[in-house]
Design brief:
268 residues; alpha/beta; six-stranded mixed sheet; five-stranded mixed sheet; binds fe (ii) ion; GpdQ/CpdA-like; hydrolase
């Protein structure tokens, strides 16, 4: 199975820049790249912060741009999103009984679970008991390999100002216990940190990547406010088979030339 993961599109009101760049232009370039190079992907998941201020006009533009994507798309909610306006514009986005934007999807690779880690009124994350009860039911139904998608990571990343707006520590512990009991979590995909990070959390492989518009600087010393950079955006091409989850990051706006080293003897 081939999956595309991208995150933190941060769409603004149409025509409005954000930190000197244009989120909609970035997303259009990303869609063009996916269509040209990876139109055979089975699914594209965007792990939250779809709109910077949760405006309905931004969601309209998101819908309009994504209408041109040749790959089916699944949205996940992030802390910059507005739950009601997001669902108003994307009514196909399923909600659980409590209203959280959460759903599960059976795929050839296993069960994909799209989680709502938004804590209302703050940029930090939560995964409360109500959501964990829903997740426990989904895991019970799944019975196979499970892939998780959410906005916040349930662990500290070492980027301290971002960790201050990470997931509630008690919720993260309870989530970990629930997932460990299930035991068949193959991978966790998340957004929020606007940086590439890969590793494992309590034995569960994870990955995240740069956002579409702006990035968080790699600074492990700062305690208070994070800094942004304009490192190029990326999307991930994920190849999943029975044994492996392989995550390729694609800097789709990198202007570097592709060349055959055997055809460039003058560079020897
Ligand atoms: Fe973000």
């Amino acid at each position: 199975m081939k999956l595309i993961h991208l995150t933190d599109t941060h769409l603004t009101l149409p025509g409005q820049p954000l930190y000197g760049t244009y989120p909609a232009e970035r997303l259009r370039a990303c869609v063009e790249s996916i269509n040209n190079e990876h139109a055979d992907a089975d699914l594209c998941v965007i792990t939250g912060d779809l709109a910077h201020c949760g405006d309905i006009e931004a969601y309209e533009e998101l819908a309009s741009i994504l209408a041109g994507l040749k790959v089916p798309v699944q949205l996940v909610i992030g802390n910059h999103d507005h739950r009601e306006r997001l669902v108003e514009r994307f009514p196909q986005l399923a909600r659980d009984e409590a209203g959280f934007v959460q759903s599960a999807l059976k795929t050839e690779a296993g069960t994909f679970i799209f989680m709502d880690s938004v804590k209302d009124g703050t940029h930090a994350g939560a995964y409360c008991e109500t959501r964990r009860t829903w997740l426990a039911q989904q895991l019970e139904k799944a019975g196979d390999d499970v892939f998780l998608f959410m906005h916040h990571a349930p662990f500290k990343t070492g980027i301290k100002p971002m960790d201050k707006i990470g997931m509630d520590a008690q919720d993260a512990l309870a989530l970990k216990a629930l997932l460990q009991r299930y035991g068949r979590i193959k991978h966790l995909f998340f957004g929020h940190y606007h940086r590439p990070m890969h590793g494992s959390w309590s034995g569960i492989g994870f990955s995240t990547l740069r956002g579409m518009n702006h990035q968080v600087a790699l600074d492990l010393k700062r305690e208070d406010n994070y800094l942004f950079t304009h490192e190029p955006p990326a999307y991930a091409v994920v190849l999943i088979d029975d044994d492996n989850v392989v995550v390729h990051n694609h800097d789709f706006m990198d202007p570097s030339q592709v060349f055959d080293p055997n055809m460039e003897p003058e560079w020897d």
